[in-house]
Amino acid sequence: MPETDLALLLEAGQKAGEIASSYFGRDPRIWNKDDNAGPVTEADLAVNAHLAAVLQAARPDYGWLSEESEDAKARLTTRRQFVIDPIDGTRAFIERSRDWAISLAIVEDGVPLVGVVIMPERGKTYAALRGQGATLNGSRLSVTGQADLAAATVLTNKITMQPDFWKGGVTPPIKRTFRSSLAYRLCLVAEARFDAMMTLRPTWEWDIAAGALIVAEAGGTVTDRQARPLRLNNQMPQVNGVIAAGPVHRAIASALI
């Protein structure tokens, strides 16, 4: 059994990636979740079963929060929790895009302690340990130095660009692009491929727990849409949107309503 939490997540995540890839591009069975919560595939469930078995056996005193497990709220009584998205970007997975991720985090007292995001079909493993920096396939990561909002490249969806979200009713002239997986968007900011990512919608903790730590350990700033620090392991496991960026974070947060 791996001795450290980071080694545990890396080992479990790599096997999870192998399981997910065994279904990828092979038309796995798909169901629609209740309340229009989106699709889930047999691959999501197989990965979740593997992670739940391995991680909970290794750390039985840690709480458990996963997109594909019933939230029994027992996690609220624990100091540390696994926060897991077995496949982040399920729609991309179904559409045979490679832009889906396995997102694994350990949260301590509301703050991510360890984060791993694995992109099996892209051969990427992002990892971070609080206070120890962030890496991609073992190489250190650092966010961009871009501070000018007008020159920033931002990963976000189209709805974010509506004038109603911006002061004065004017959308800044930022360069927008998109990826399906929130975890991957965060990691691309940490990798300095983009200057920022943001989502203004209520955001599930399992989508962002690992990636938020990876951005922070790459020197970035990660907050909710109102520039407040993220606090995780909430009763309702959501945060009020996410802004993750290098120096341009201040300009984005100041421009939003």
TrEMBL record:
Binding site for Mg(2+): 67, 85, 87-88, 207
Coiled coil: none
The name this protein goes by in its record: Myo-inositol-1(Or 4)-monophosphatase
Cofactor(s) listed in the protein's UniProt record: Mg(2+)
Keyword list, A-Z: Magnesium, Metal-binding
Organism: Cognatiyoonia koreensis
GO molecular function: inositol monophosphate 1-phosphatase activity; metal ion binding
Family statement drawn from the similarity comment of this UniProt entry: Belongs to the inositol monophosphatase superfamily.
Keyword Ligase part of the UniProt annotation: no
GO biological process, one term: inositol metabolic process
CDD domains hit by this protein: CysQ
